[in-house]
Amino acid sequence: MTAQPKRNSTTEWQAQDRHHIHPFSDNAQLHEIGSRVITKAEGTHLWDSEGNRLLDAFAGLWCVNVGYGRKSIADVAYKQLQELPYYNTFFKTTHPPVAELSKLLVDMTPKQFNNVFYGQSGSDANDTIVRMVRSYWNLKKQPKKKTIISRTNGYHGSTMVAASLGGMNYMHELADLPLPGFVHIRQPYWYGEGGSSTPEEFGKLCAKALEDKILELGAENVAAFIGEPIQGAGGVIIPPMTYWPAIQEICKKYDLLLIADEVICGFGRTGHWFGSEYFGIESDFMTMAKGITSGYMPLSAIMVSDRVADVLNSGIDFSHGYTYSGHPVSCAVAIENIRILREEKLVERVHDETGPYLTKRLWELLDHPLVGEVRNVGLMGGIELVKDKNNRKTFQPVGDTGTICRDHCFRLGLVMRATRDTMLISPSLTWTKGDIDDFMKLTQEALDLTAKDVGL
Ligand SMILES: *Cc1c(COP(=O)(O)O)cnc(C)c1O
Fold it and tell me: What is the pLDDT of residues 345-354, one digit of tens each?
């Protein structure tokens, strides 16, 4: 596929874009240097307005699981737009795509899930879950059970509630968050915080922090615990295998609802359909977005367990919903996306072939002077850059080295995001071993250039 450079337009688009407030950006600085204009994508590559081709190791924003340029998805969307572009599901009505998707999701998720609610984004889905959790305990005549516990450095979205659930200090500071009723415990980040403990010990220790917090607050006041099976935006933090079973047990013991935020882990990223399957998590809610449509249309879905649904569906109006809940085009796209994942056996491929191969290749980087730790499950990985790998000593200030490396990647034709000084990998599930080899070659080069820049 040849690129279509539009050289004369780049500066024009950048000028127009000065009116655009970008998410998670220093906009003054961005307007100064000008945004990179992405004009086209195909397979696992992007093209910018200067005609540069980039290997996308981040699948957009963790989401383009089936890769770019899927004509069958475009066709399904086009057909749905002509047949029924929009109708709501508020007034005792439904439509074929939302009905079909609902049954499909119930069939493919763990057995406790027989009910699903729709939104447009992971953030609004997590907001909705908080409303459901509160309704649940109110209906159960335990209205004091309100507080939700989550983790430092967890990410659950950007609305006021989702950012409160999240544990990003820099997001809290922006708007006096968290809201009352949201508290945080430590994250299971063994490399960064585990000290001399084994991963197994550390996993249990971090789970114990949940029990300590519940006892501090009183179990009668605690409604739920939320976590990403693997923290994504926080730096691909993979908890030790002892962590989730212990969390699960504590939630049972103190009667907390358990929410698994599967927005990144879901739809095959870990080599399983859901991160919950990889860790053996049995939750009351699963938040799904991103990979559910591979980003071709906005959609989120919340799986609600029978335990919760039986209470919420007990003769009250659930007075909550969005104009675009169960949008027909988004649902039709999700169905086609899931069909592709299944037909091409992409989840199996990640599990059996490309996931293990990425692990093998990433581990080679441990010889590099900059690389303190590599970690991945399936096609979700991190490369943590440190100043002194023998003592796990980080760079100061944290984040500069990651940015240097990210910029080198861009110049070399590779999109790899950085969180602090960890490089994040989350490519399309269509990646072949050859794509992984290309990726490794560029990464090695970027790491060498970065090492030189920081004097290692
Ligand atoms: C991206 C993300 C969200 C938020 O989803 P949006 O669609 O951006 O609102 C929530 N949870 C996790 C784990 C995410 O990665």
Answer: 999 999 999 9
